[in-house]
Amino acid sequence: MSEDVHRLGTLRSTVQQTILGPSGRVVARALTPIDRALQPGANHFNRLFGRYVGDVTGLQLGVLLVSLVALVAAPAWAPLLAGNYMRTLTLACIWAIFAMGWDIQSGYTGYISFGHSVLSAAAGYTTALLVVNVSPDLGLVVTIPMSILAALVVGLLIGLPSLRLSGPYFSLVTFVSVLLFYRLTIGFSETLGGENGFQAVEVFTWDFTVRYYYMLVPMLLIAVALTFVARSNVGMVLVAIRENERAVAAAGLNPTKFKLWSFALSSITMGIGGVLLAHFGGNVDPATFVVVDRSIEMIAMAVIGGMSSVLGPIGGAFLFVLLRDEVLRLWFGHSTRWLVLWFLVLLVLVFARNGLFRWFWHTVGSIGGDRE
């Protein structure tokens, strides 16, 4: 076993020294003039927003702008591609919200949750139950706040007892919460719809373009809000808890209070995502919302993008969903597609533990001098 690990480390080192290193230096030399050209704009951005969202280099600002323009202009280029990219990109926006929601709690504090699908399910099922049991004409101004509130309440019910635990015990509690919620949907099938769930939730719109923007705008707003939190003193304390919780307590701060705060923030984010997912397709069922697979997928998206960052989970979610729903299905059947996808996730865990997009962001920043 130790020999295999040693060989793997040697292979990774060889690849870095013989391929990635020289190639990276060539690319860096080519991009340096672009970085310098964009640096005045980056300086202006840093003066206005740097204290809230962090400083960027010229090239990093260029990457952000290009990515933002590509997302906003997706209805113009996505239909030109073979496949249903508008639907896939819309789903990716929702899953990016889930990945960010998981990351602000687990990525920043180091308390790995396997139960975040319960939080999105709480919001989705609340929406469905209100529509089915109260009135199908109930307005979104009622169902959306109530559903997000339900996610927050469920999150606090899970977080209050479990966040006093540490290590695997916290993860086990969150994992069991998924199993409990799933069994509730089956055991109380007359109320919660059983395996089939509900199909009565009104879809926002069947217009692919409009529906895409319905999901994109909340995703961007949540990304800005979470970036602000992550860069604040609260975000620094959450990271400090992950690094050394005892030191945080020794400094006179209450780690449990901050962990609970992050869980509440995460629950609200998951609630927003749950509402959007419910109104995306109109169905709310255990397979879509509850099963532990959904939690694992959120974790995978955050991990391959880069935990404890906001851009990482967004990039990871888009990469994961695009691979799953568009790219890999060109060559593989359903089961093989999932096998290849999880194998790719495994490769990222082995060769890029900090995440692809986190690595990319810092590499781009290092060309002009990463200021983080």
Overall description:
This protein is mostly helical and 372 residues long. The protein has helices at residues 2-53, 58-72, 74-77, 85-109, 116-134, 140-162, 168-187, 189-192, 208-231, 233-250, 255-281, 286-289, 292-305, 311-327, 334-351, 356-368. The protein is globular, with a radius of gyration of 21 Å.
Write a compact overview of the structure shown.
The chain is mostly helical. 80% of the residues lie in helices and 0% in strands. The longest helix is centred in the first third of the chain and has 52 residues, at 2-53.
Characterize the overall form. globular
Q: Structural class, from helix and strand content?
A: mainly alpha
Approximately how much helix is present in the residues?
over 70%
Average residue-wise pLDDT = 89
Strand content: under 5%
Biggest sheet architecture: none
| Series of secondary-structure elements, N-terminal to C-terminal | HHHHHHHHHHHHHHHH
Say how many strands there are: 0
Subunit arrangement of the protein: single chain
What's the gyration radius in Å? 21 Å
Report the span from N to C terminus.
Answer: 37 Å
Which helices and strands appear, and what pairs or packs with what?
Layout: H1 2-53, H2 58-72, H3 74-77, H4 85-109, H5 116-134, H6 140-162, H7 168-187, H8 189-192, H9 208-231, H10 233-250, H11 255-281, H12 286-289, H13 292-305, H14 311-327, H15 334-351, H16 356-368
Helix pairs in contact: 1-2, 4-9, 4-10, 4-11, 4-13, 4-14, 5-6, 5-11, 6-11, 9-11, 10-11, 13-14
